[in-house]
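Worked Example 4.2. Consider the chain below.
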Amino acid sequence: MILEIVEYQPPSRVVFSGQRSFGMVPNFTIELKTVEKGTTVRYLLHPDIPTFLRPLLATFAVPYGRRDLDRYFRELDAMLARV
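Applying the procedure from the previous section yields the following structure tokens:
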């Protein structure tokens, strides 16, 4: 996947937009916020999905997306623990 940074507000916000693939554009935002014991990370997905694909994705993509996000955050936690 090829992504472009379309907005950057250091040190707290990065907005990405991707190239259209399978009819969708993978847009997402990562927000970082300092808290008492570290940093919270918010990953906000806001893809451009054609209307005709939405029912299909609602049925199949949600379970796979949750699984992938769980894995992503486990790996991110492991990487941050090594820092």
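The mean pLDDT is 85. Helices lie at 54-81. Compare this with Example 4.1 before moving on.
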